[in-house]
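Annex B. Sample input.
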Amino acid sequence: LITAPVIYADDEFDTCSAEEACESEVRVPKCPPTVGTKKLYEDDSSVVWDFVLPAGERLPPHEHMYDYRFTVIEGSRLAATSAETGEELFQFDAPTGATMAFVRKGELMHDTSGAIPAFDSTHGVKNVGNTTYREIIFETKPCETGLGDGRSAQRYDSERVRRVQLYEFQEEKQSGAVQILLNHAKILESRAGGRATSLFGSCANAAVEKKLAKEKTHAMVTDFESVIQMRETMEDSQVVSDLSAIPSIVFDFHPNLVKLAKRNGAGSLKHVVFIKFKTESPVGDLIAGYIDLPNHIDQMKGFEWGPFANGFNTNGPGSDIEAETRGGFEYVFITTFDTATDRDAYLVHNAHEKYVKQLVPNVEDFMVMDF
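Annex B, continued. Sample output.
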């Protein structure tokens, strides 16, 4: 297997600096904006969700990017939970037939009736009643958000997006796999008008993490200027017909840039970690802990992360296939190392080992792919 990444197109991703990222007016979600259990419909001005929650179960941390209202179909008693710690914030009754409405102001959601105190727009929900709960949620977009100055939430159609694709090539095809991915990258670049950059290579996991690749043999990360560009490129009939390999994992995300790698192309090593947290986990605290690692481990030359964006801003109904395509994972974290030796030093660093001990008990599923 080739243990170094191969880069096609530019020497590095065409991305903004950390300073530019901090000054950006765009506020991409920190948690998946999956405010229900199934998206029923979406268009340019609204999203409709079905939300079903059996007694005792939780909806994982999510972010309300838009104003919304809901009508209760089957009532119960609910509790809002902290996205950071998983702890209960408050409880309220949601009886059958009730309608509630909330508006986003800053980072908080406000009940228009004033009955429920303002709460963080990023939170989880638990059914603390004795019966299954169901509601229909209606989101209205755009709306006022944490951007301030009267600016509105965006649909993110024009925002930069990355697509991570993992492949399982059979042993007899692995010798030609890189050429297949090179052809794939050429097709994507051509159909995107030269505005898509791909990094790709074969699995280069450390020995202690070989099994964590779950038999995936190759990876490709493609950077698109916008969701619109990605959608148009990937739906192009020529792209579909010309691709000779189908990825087993497809994970889209808007990158939250923590540290910009100065060396991001050929010769560097990407360490890609996919995570699905347990529903009761302190997700915010765990993400914050991961984000803090570059402050303590010099070998981490670049770091970015994001919740999944598969299927969002797509008009029409949602699909269960979206979750299957991303393998059920909710977040991706990508670290750039200059060398495999640096990666190995990171794995045994005290800060990393301490963090892993906190992380593992709170993870339902995870996968690691270095390339």
